[in-house]
Structures are given as C-alpha cells and as structure tokens.
C-alpha cells in the first residue's frame, strides 16, 4: 500500500516500530526495516558512543530507511543529535519535550522529524513547530504516557480533525485488526511497541518478553503521575512503589524509588 506515511519514509508498509529505549537496538530496527516497516533505534537508554555503534551496525544490516527515537528529557541530548547528523540518519522521532527545540536544526540537515504527542493541543503545537508528522499516543500505551489519559481510539479522530500533516496512531495496537481500526479513524499509519518488544530480535530479556506476552487485562497500571505517567506491570517493583504511596511520599522520594526500577543500557552487541 502507498499513502502519506509510506511516501514520507519511503517504506513499504505504514508500520513503525516504536523506539523503546533498551528494548530496541540495531537488530530489531534493521529487522523491521528489512521487512518493509520503519525500524527505530531507541536512543533514550544509550550513552552517545553506544548509540553511534548501534547506528553503524544498523546501516550495515539494512539498506532500507530506519530512524532514531530521542526522548528529549534525557541528558547528552546535544551530543546525541550531533551523532545522528554525523552518522547521516535521515529520520528522527522526538518525544518528551518541546518539538521547537530541535526540529529546525534537524530540518537544516535534511532530516525528517516526527514528534510523539498525547493530546490535540500538543499535536497542533508540533505542527506549528514544523514537524513532518506526529505520533498520537493513547492512554493504552506501554512505557511513558500523557497526563491526559485519553484513549487511542478517542484521540485519533480528534487529532485528525485538526491536523493537516500525516498522523500515526499508537497505544494498544498489536494486530492487523487494531491497525485497520486506527486507520479507519483517520490514522495514516501505526506505531507498535509491545508486539515488537516480544519479538526474537528485541534486546529485551526472554523473561520480560514472556511476561509481556502473558500479561492480561488488569495486569498493568499507570502510575508515577506526579513525575511522568508510566505504565507498569504488577511485579515486585510495583508492589514496593505502591507501599511507598501509602506513606504519602514527596516527589523526591518517588524519583529515588523510580531509579531502582530503571536500567541504563550499556549493551554494545544487542
């Protein structure tokens, strides 16, 4: 099929693999791109030199387009952007920050820019900032979520009514039926995370992949809303966090607790 998204990225199918920090290294990104979608390397968990290595390996593993996802709340952002330019990456997905900050810089280097949003207001701000497309991500998504808690299939038609640039739907989409439903509601393509997390090429641990596959309704919770809403599987970390909430913690205490459930990847050959 050919539409706005396939033309924008020069890909076969309007399917984007989400940039899921330590889950999405060069193996996953190149596999998705080779299959006709758009693979993304998740820069959020990578030190700059590790990101450079993943980009170089991805370029060797595929001749197809791929991109890098950059959460702008992470440190080393300037160094990361410079590496992306130096390594001639042509597509960047930004999130967790103001799209105005880097869009012009990236456009000057001939890079396509997509920004991830969780509301109509942020979609319009992104369009005004000059991005080439937006990912509208609903409340169902894994990982970090928007504070609005708007569901995907409510958000997509609302954004579509206001937006002129291409629209990618994300959040709770894992099957062809879900993709069809999103596109009927106005999306030009879909971004999928959890389905790709569980794939063979994902750098996630096998135990995590199995947990994702076997998780049922009610097994995840959106929490840490005082900092940045994040979807957690109910496990020991969640139970410890829930116990801390019973003590009416400060934001600083929540930040310290969050650190114990976060891993900064230093993998070089995933």
Quick structural gist:
The chain is an alpha/beta fold. The protein has twelve helices and eleven strands.
Cα shape: globular
Order of adjacent strands in the largest pleated sheet: 1-9-8-6-5-4-3-2
Number of domains: 1
CATH structural fold name = TIM Barrel
Quaternary: single chain
**Share in helix:** 40-55%
> How much beta, percentage-wise?
15-25%
Overall pLDDT level: 89
What is the CA-CA span between the terminal residues?
A: 32 Å
Radius of gyration: 18 Å
CATH superfamily: Aldolase class I
Summarize the biggest pleated sheet. Answer: 8 strands, parallel
Structural class: alpha/beta
User: Poorly predicted ranges (pLDDT <50, ≥5 residues)?
Assistant: 265-270
DSSP summary: helix tally: 12
CATH architecture heading: Alpha-Beta Barrel
How would you characterize the overall build of this protein?
The protein has one domain (4-197): Aldolase class I (TIM Barrel, Alpha-Beta Barrel). Helix 2 runs parallel beside helix 3 and helix 3 (48-61) runs parallel beside helix 4. The protein contains twelve helices and eleven strands. The chain has helices at 4-9, 26-34, 48-61, 77-86, 100-108, 120-129, 152-162, 176-184, 194-197, 206-214, 236-245, 251-259, and strands at 15-17, 39-42, 66-71, 91-95, 112-117, 133-137, 143-144, 167-170, 189-192, 220-223, 230-233. The chain is globular, with a radius of gyration of 18 Å. It starts with a helix and ends in an 11-residue tail after the last helix. It has 270 residues and is α/β, with parallel strands linked by helices. Strand 10 and strand 11 (230-233) form a beta hairpin.
């Amino acid at each position: 099929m050919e539409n706005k998204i396939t033309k924008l990225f020069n890909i076969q199918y309007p399917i984007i693999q989400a940039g899921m920090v330590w889950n999405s290294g060069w193996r996953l990104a190149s596999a998705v791109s080779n299959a006709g979608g758009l693979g993304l390397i998740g820069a959020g968990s990578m030190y700059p030199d590790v990101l450079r290595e993943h980009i170089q390996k991805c370029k060797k593993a595929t001749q197809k387009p791929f991109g890098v996802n950059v959460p702008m709340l992470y440190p080393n952002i300037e160094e990361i952007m410079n590496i992306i330019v130096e390594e001639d990456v042509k597509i960047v997905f930004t999130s967790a920050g103001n799209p105005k900050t880097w869009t012009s810089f990236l456009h000057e280097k001939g890079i396509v820019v997509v920004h991830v949003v969780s509301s109509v207001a942020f979609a319009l701000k992104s369009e005004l900032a000059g991005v080439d497309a937006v990912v509208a991500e609903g409340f169902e998504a894994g990982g970090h979520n928007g504070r609005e808690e708007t569901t995907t299939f409510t958000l997509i038609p609302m954004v579509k009514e206001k937006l002129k640039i291409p629209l990618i739907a994300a959040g709770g989409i894992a099957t062809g039926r879900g993709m069809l439903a999103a596109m009927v509601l106005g999306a030009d393509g879909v971004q999928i995370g959890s389905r790709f997390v569980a794939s063979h090429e994902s750098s996630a641990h096998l135990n995590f992949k199995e947990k994702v596959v076997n998780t049922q309704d009610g097994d995840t919770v959106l929490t840490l809303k005082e900092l940045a809403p994040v979807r957690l599987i109910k496990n020991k970390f969640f139970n410890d966090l829930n116990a801390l909430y019973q003590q009416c913690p400060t934001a600083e205490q929540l930040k310290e607790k969050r650190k114990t459930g976060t891993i900064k990847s230093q993998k070089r050959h995933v």
